[in-house]
Specification:
Layout lengths: L4 H23 L5 H6 E3 L19 H4 L2 H17 L8 E4 L9 E19 L5 E4 L7 E8 L7 E10 L4 E9 L12 E4 L10 E5 L8 E6 L5 E7 L8 E3 L2 E7 L2 E5 L5 E6 L5 E10 L2 E8 H7 L5 E6 L5 E6 H4 L1 H6 L18 E7 L2 E6 L4 E6 L6 E6 L17 E3 L9 E6 L8 E8 L14 H4 L13 E9 L4 E10 L7 E5 L2 E6 L4 E5 L5 E6 L9 E5 L6
Parallel strand pairs: 1-7, 24-28
Antiparallel strand pairs: 2-3, 3-4, 3-5, 3-6, 6-7, 8-32, 9-10, 9-33, 10-11, 12-13, 13-14, 14-15, 16-17, 17-18, 18-19, 20-21, 21-22, 22-23, 25-26, 26-27, 27-28, 29-30, 30-31, 31-32
InterPro entries: Arylsulfate_ST, Arylsulfotran_N, Arylsulfotransferase_bact, ASST_N_sf
Protein name: Arylsulfate sulfotransferase
Organism: Lactobacillus corticis
Length: 557
């Protein structure tokens, strides 16, 4: 007997279609449109490429930071871009083509409609990382970016999603095994949760001046879970800080060079101060079309053994030094008395009577921090003949030193003055009167003055109203309210942080406070009340770093 399966199968198929149609009709008002059509996966045909560097010198970090090399790399990349049409389904992906970010990924493709691009990175054993690729006009058809966030040395699953102005989305997913980090063996920092219940701020920590290696240096970007999401190798010294101007990032790559990077990782300019007779140290800041940097005169270092007491002004467009401020000329009487030589830092055996470590610019003035004198100095008329506007320090520091005591602002209240402070930052507020502003800092709370070894520290050893003393095994976050109208300053906020005799940093950031205890082997994010939200402990034998600053990197990566 023949079995008639075909008519039965047709009936079952038709019934299924009808039932599906009824279900869809009943649910068409409750289903969210995006579940039906908004996100559309595309067929992925992607392979991560490596650029051909044949004939180019890229084997050393110094060779990479050569503009001829960077331009040659860019030309090869341009040829690849023109070789074919790249789409979301088949983008051009190249691992770290400019050799400036170890785990970075160059991304290039076009879309038929203007879109914005978001992405997600997943790696086993690490938290997900998400971001939005930089777009000059918000929505655009040509997408060329450096994607950061991949975890070094492991398999990363990366999803790119485009969204047009109507909300339509398309996505593609590919895998990327990022190279191992060049300067450290660790992908993360040890995360410890603090007593504060607040969430950490958005952004990435730039950990600057890591000394885990004696011969290698890098600046790392670290997320809130403690995972390293980018590594910028440098030649030597440290990057000091990251500054941004016109969609470019400025960072020091040695004690004589500042590199300028665009948003795809290409070095477009290098400011060389060493060739002009000056070494960089500690800090620099951008003001309009100029850059102010703390410096050492190579001539003064060689002939007079004098260091870290110069300020140079650099034209950003030309890279030329246009002005030099010499603290010896401003404070000649100090130099006559402070004749002791440095014993503790890398400047052992040299004359370091001011030891500048932070610079801030405000109109025609500069605010600098002098570690050696435990003094915050404001210098005025910096475009002309420079003058002293004020000093902030304990009066004992300047007692009997020329006539400099007349520049001291009056201290309001009884509190311990800062000792050996770092990262003194200006904070303006619309709530304050004209002539008023805040200065906050990492108060190292450490008594050292090699240039005047007989200085009497008794004003710092007595316990203040907050039970703080320079003898304590702690450093402090300090915030002053400065009133130039009445020539006063007062302490409005303080809390204790892990001890660091030298280096270290403080940053007020989006309602939180970032503290790096440079010699303490930890950086932390605190809430506004001084309670730890999260702490990140360094790994490795040498746990010293210079400073950690948080950035959101909007309008860049």
């Amino acid at each position: 007997m023949k079995k008639h399966y075909r008519p039965i199968a047709v009936i079952v198929l038709i019934t299924g279609i009808l039932l599906t149609g009824v279900w869809a009709y009943r649910h068409r008002q409750t289903l969210k449109p995006e579940l039906i059509w908004k996100t559309t996966p595309v067929t992925n045909q992607t392979k991560i490429q490596k650029l051909n560097y044949q004939g180019l010198k890229v084997s050393t970090t110094s060779a990479v930071f050569n503009l001829k090399t960077q331009n040659a790399i860019d030309q090869r990349l341009t040829k690849l871009k023109k070789a074919k049409t790249y789409t979301l389904a088949s983008p051009l992906l190249i691992a770290n083509p400019y050799k400036t970010n170890t785990s970075g990924l160059y991304v290039y493709f076009k879309t038929s409609l203007p879109t914005k691009v978001t992405y997600r990175v997943r790696a086993k054993g690490y938290e997900d990382y998400s971001g939005t690729l930089y777009s000059k006009n918000g929505y655009q058809r040509i997408h060329e970016n450096e994607l950061i966030g991949a975890v070094a040395g492991v398999k990363n699953k990366i999803t790119l999603t485009t969204t047009d102005k109507s909300g339509n989305q398309h996505s593609t997913t590919f895998e990327y095994i990022a190279p191992k980090l060049a300067k450290t063996d660790y992908n993360s920092y040890r995360l410890v949760y603090g007593p504060s219940s607040e969430k950490p701020s958005q952004g990435l920590f730039a950990m600057i001046g890591d000394k885990a290696s004696k011969t290698r240096r890098s600046t790392y970007l670290i997320d809130n879970s403690g995972t390293i999401r980018a590594e910028f190798p440098i030649e030597s010294y440290n990057s000091m800080r990251l500054n941004f101007r016109k969609h470019h990032m400025y960072y020091a790559i040695s004690s004589g060079k500042i590199a300028v990077m665009n948003h795809v990782g290409q070095i477009t300019a290098i400011i060389n101060t060493k060739k002009q007779g000056y070494e960089l140290h500690h800090d620099y800041i951008i003001q309009g079309n100029h850059l102010w940097a703390l410096a050492t005169s190579i001539k003064a270092k060689t002939k007079a053994k004098r260091v870290e007491d110069q300020i140079i002004k650099i034209n950003i467009k030309t890279g030329k030094i246009t002005k030099v401020i010499d603290l010896k000329q401003i404070l000649p009487q100090l130099y006559r008395q402070a004749t002791g030589l440095e014993k503790h830092s890398a400047n052992r055996g040299l004359h370091d009577p001011v030891h500048l470590n932070t610079i801030q610019a405000s109109k025609n003035s500069l605010v600098v921090s002098s570690r050696e004198t435990s003094t915050i100095m404001k210098l005025g008329n910096v475009s002309g003949k420079v003058k002293i506007d004020y000093f902030i320090s304990d009066k004992s520091v300047w007692q009997g030193v020329g006539n400099y005591s007349k520049y001291l602002l009056k201290q309001k209240g009884s509190f311990l003055n800062s000792a050996g402070q770092h990262t003194v930052m200006i904070e303006h507020s619309a709530k304050l009167k004209h002539g008023q502003y805040y200065l906050y800092m990492f108060n190292n709370n450490y008594a050292m003055m090699d240039s005047r070894p007989n200085f009497n520290w008794s004003a710092y050893t007595e316990m203040d109203r907050n039970n703080n003393t320079v003898k304590g095994n702690y450093s402090l976050y300090y915030k002053y309210l400065v009133d130039e109208n009445n020539r006063t300053y007062k302490l409005i906020k303080e809390f204790r942080v892990p001890k660091s005799n030298y280096v270290a940093s403080a940053q007020d950031y989006h309602g939180k406070i970032i503290i790096d205890s440079g010699l303490g082997g930890v950086f932390s994010e605190y809430d506004k009340n001084g309670k730890v939200i999260r702490s990140y402990y360094y790994r490795g034998s040498d746990r010293q770093t210079y400073r950690t600053i948080k950035y959101d990197f909007q309008n860049f990566f």
